[in-house]
Amino acid sequence: MKWTELRIETPDRLREAVSNYLVEQGAEGVWEEGTFPTMLRAYFPPEQAEAVQTSLVVYLGSLRELYPRTQRVHVTAQTVVREEWAEKWKEFFQPQALGEQFFLIPKWRRQEGLAADRIPIVLDPGMAFGTGLHESTRLCVELLETVVNAAEPPRVLDAGTGSGILAIVAYKLGARAITAVDVDPVAVEVAKENCAENNCPGIDFKVCSADHVTGEFDIIVANILLEAHLQSLRAYRERLRTGGKLILSGLLVSQRETIRAALLANGFLTVTFLEQGEWLSCLA
Ligand SMILES: C[S@@+](CC[C@H](N)C(=O)[O-])C[C@H]1O[C@@H](n2cnc3c(N)ncnc32)[C@H](O)[C@@H]1O
């Protein structure tokens, strides 16, 4: 089967933002080679690639406004055959520590063993976002570790579950009554498989947007993008019990004041931030 490969030679400070954007646009795979600059390769069905390339160029223009001194980013497209890339990204997914308590193991490398003092999570993200390697995911894990109290198992909403990694982390930390939603039906299927693989029963999966969830939660964790958060903040406020915790991720450091103002305007009284590189998460 033929695919269009978009190659984006990306300055390192934009690497995560561009990679995330490509995933949000529905890339069937994104992988990175080298540094200074990084070559990002993303794969799309040919009929979709042209529109993505056009929107990517607009997005890159907005990033250049945020970072005017970064070099211009070049995007090229070429046709490739699926077999050439479908397995290649797996080379980059290594077993590794995640947060304070977890050890992440790609499913195809599970025989390589565990870290004795850490809780294993075996993951095959397939076509969904959420290897656990991305800063935005890692920040959510750190924040979940601080707010999930196993002695009082919280009800958790994982909004934008992707591979299901945050639902698994929440479950392993002691949360129960977990709801995991994603607008992408493929992601929901992948999340179900990963949760089953990691013995996390009873999770309520739904294909729906974060702002259409019903029920009440003690914790909401959402690793999406600023625009989706802004659209969903009111729903998050309504779905959280009084005193509940909201973890937002997928934000850039440059978006700190925008999200702070929006949270305060939606009735959240305190906001604290955590960052890694260009990426920002907050707890409200
Ligand atoms: C950056 S990934 C996060 C995946 C995983 N939770 C993690 O932290 O690694 C964002 C996910 O949110 C989903 N998504 C995007 N907009 C959404 C929305 N408005 N409501 C629910 N899910 C959404 C995407 O399909 C994608 O799977």
Polypeptide structure, described:
It is globular, with a radius of gyration of 19 Å. The strands form 3 sheets. A 7-stranded mixed sheet has the order 10-9-8-11-12-14-13, sandwiched between helices. The chain is 33% helix and 31% strand. Strand 5 and strand 6 (102-106) form a beta hairpin. With 284 residues, the chain is α/β, with parallel strands linked by helices. Helix 1 (12-24) runs antiparallel to helix 2 (46-66) and helix 3 packs parallel to helix 4 (165-173). It has 2 domains: 2-89, Alpha-Beta Plaits, CATH 3.30.70.120; 127-283, Vaccinia Virus protein VP39 (Rossmann fold, 3-Layer(aba) Sandwich). The protein binds S-adenosylmethionine.
Q: How are the SSEs placed, and which strands pair?
A:
Blueprint: E1 2-10, H1 12-24, E2 29-33, E3 38-44, H2 46-66, E4 74-81, E5 96-98, E6 102-106, E7 119-123, H3 135-147, E8 155-159, H4 165-173, E9 176-182, H5 185-197, E10 204-207, E11 217-223, H6 226-239, E12 240-252, H7 256-265, E13 272-276, E14 279-283
Parallel strand pairs: 6-7, 8-9, 8-11, 9-10, 11-12
Antiparallel strand pairs: 1-3, 1-4, 2-3, 5-6, 12-14, 13-14
